[in-house]
Amino acid sequence: MREYNDYVQTTKEYLKHYHEFKVAIDNMNDEIEAEEKMLSIEPSAPTPKYGDDTGGGRSELTPAEAEAAKRIAIQEGIERKRLEVERIERAIRKVDRALDALPGQDRQLVEGYYFERKSWKELSIDHFMTEKWARVATGKAVKKMAGMIFGFFPEQQSLFVFFE
Fold first, then answer.
1. Is 105 within the bounds of a domain?
2. What's the gap between Cα 130 and its chain centre?
């Protein structure tokens, strides 16, 4: 079972790799397009082989079967890539929705730190706060985002039990 901190950590990873995810999607979509073009080309008819050469090293598949197996492998690769693109796009949409729901300054802090790669000092100057408060406020904003992305979590239980 995943713990609260796991969700926060996963949200941080989504934010850290947000731009790389978008590039990966574009690259995978290019690969899918190229592989679909390869599949659209009609396979050439195999050349018949004559003779009873039974020398070693021959494939068990006929040329037509080998071509069909190759095309099936390409189609399976395309499907795997499509599923991966869908998975990454779903994560990006979750991050986008959570960012949109954050109040202005929280969103600016998160985007400044994770997307613009600003230092805590730069963020503190931009938002007229101390570096420590910039870190704390950004951490709280990321926790809010984790709640929005993965569902709200029950508060951690108190370690102290008071008896009446």
1. yes
2. 33
Phi, psi torsion values for 158, nearest 5 degrees:
-70, 145
Contacts of 9 by beta carbon, 8 Å cutoff, 6+ apart: none
The DSSP H or E segment spanning 18 is helix 18-40
Residues with Cβ within 8 Å of residue 47, at least 6 apart in sequence:
63
Is 54 inside a domain boundary? Answer: no
Whether 53 maps to a domain, the answer reads: no
Q: Is there a contact between 88 and 11 (Cβ–Cβ < 8 Å)?
A: no
Which residue shows structure tokens 């070693």? Answer: 56
Q: Which domain holds residue 31?
A: 4-43+65-150
The pLDDT tens digits of the residues spanning 74-99 come to 999 999 999 999 999 999 999 999 99
Name the domain count of the chain: 1
Query: What pTM did the predictor assign?
Result: 0.74
Distances from the Cα of 89 to the Cαs of 7, 29, 110, in angstroms? 18, 12, 20
Helix (H, G, I), strand (E, B) or coil at 135: helix
Look up the CATH number of the domain holding residue 20. 1.20.140
Q: Hey, CA dihedral for 33, 36, 41, 45, is it positive or negative?
A: positive
Q: Is residue 31 part of a domain?
A: yes
